[in-house]
Amino acid sequence: MKEAIINLLKVKSLMTIAVMVVFVILSLKGKLEPTLTASVITAVITYYFTKKDSKEGE
Q: pTM of this prediction?
């Protein structure tokens, strides 16, 4: 169980970093507005790091 949680955190971290890198690159190339990039990065970080597992309270 502990290993599953550790692996899940690794996936969350990798996905979060990947999304941020892609949006920053697209923003720097002028293909996206910086405000959109900031909004997406904020949403991704908020989703991945504030989401609680339903079994956490048990």
A: 0.58
